[in-house]
Recover the amino acids of this structure.
């Protein structure tokens, strides 16, 4: 057996952080076991996830709202039905997000006259104001940084007669589409553009239910960037043919009364009941009146 050499050099310890740590000497705090997401994920900024002034409920609601697709209902009633927190706590959290710029909520009137709340989620509060400030302060620009003009919607069919009642029914059909698919939320301007196309379908003997089904069936699964443009295309491309021609109904034949014998001149004439013929009734002479 070899003897222990007390003068042997001790192996040098590694100075690389994280190396040669026993289980009991690992640094305290969280460790991450992450994989890279390639689908079904949402990018959330650390400014929100680690916000020093927002409550945990407000941060969680902001993350949820940023993860859902456009058109999803995020009002207090819908969120209270989705999460265990009650309406009072959810309302307070939404007000926090509004205060810090993560939500903008405005009340608007729909084409049918209803008042709805429109919610806009912001993942970087203040970026729009900062961009406008930089645009105004730049000497190289001659105009402020404005969004690009909105592309015009495709043309839609026009009804042969735009009756007000028909156009009102068409607007009602369009306003109800979002109840079948929240992605089909339309602005008042979109509904005004599309209403004549729906009216053209309605005057071709289609019911509002049939038009609604044609516009909402087999929609793509991905988010709809311009739902109004998709609906305009369907209204034009799938326009049904006019109903078959129906000639006007022939007038009903006059009833053929039986022959009667005139009480005044014994002449035969047709009438539903016995009496005097037309000549005797119109004779102004005393004989005619006495007949």
């Amino acid at each position: 057996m070899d003897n222990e050499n007390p003068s042997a050099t001790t192996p040098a310890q590694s100075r690389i952080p994280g190396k040669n740590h026993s289980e009991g000497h690992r640094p305290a705090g969280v460790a991450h076991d992450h994989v890279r997401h390639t689908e079904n994920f949402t990018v959330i900024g650390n400014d929100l996830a680690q916000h020093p002034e927002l409550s945990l409920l407000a941060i969680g609601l902001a993350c949820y709202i940023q993860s859902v697709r456009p058109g999803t209902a995020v009002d207090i009633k819908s969120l209270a039905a989705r999460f265990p927190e009650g309406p009072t706590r959810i309302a307070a959290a939404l007000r926090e997000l509004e205060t810090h710029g993560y939500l903008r909520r405005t009340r608007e009137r729909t084409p049918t006259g209803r008042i709805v709340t429109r919610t806009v989620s912001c993942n970087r509060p203040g970026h729009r104001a900062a961009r406008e400030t930089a645009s105004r302060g730049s000497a190289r620009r001659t105009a402020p940084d404005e969004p690009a003009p909105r592309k015009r919607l495709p043309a839609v069919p026009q009804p042969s007669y735009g009756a007000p009642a028909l156009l009102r029914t068409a607007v009602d059909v369009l306003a109800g589409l979002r109840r079948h698919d929240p992605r089909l939320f339309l602005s008042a301007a979109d509904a005004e553009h599309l209403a004549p196309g729906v009216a053209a379908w309605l005057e071709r003997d289609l019911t509002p239910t049939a038009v609604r089904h044609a516009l909402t069936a087999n929609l793509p699964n991905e988010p709809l960037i311009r739902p109004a443009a998709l609906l305009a295309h369907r209204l034009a491309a799938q326009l049904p043919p006019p109903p078959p021609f129906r000639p006007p109904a022939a007038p009903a034949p006059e009833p053929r009364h039986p022959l009667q014998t005139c009480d005044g001149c014994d002449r035969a004439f047709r009438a539903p009941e016995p009496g005097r013929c037309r000549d005797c009734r119109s004779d102004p002479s005393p004989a005619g009146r006495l007949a």
Notes: The chain has a mean pLDDT of 81.
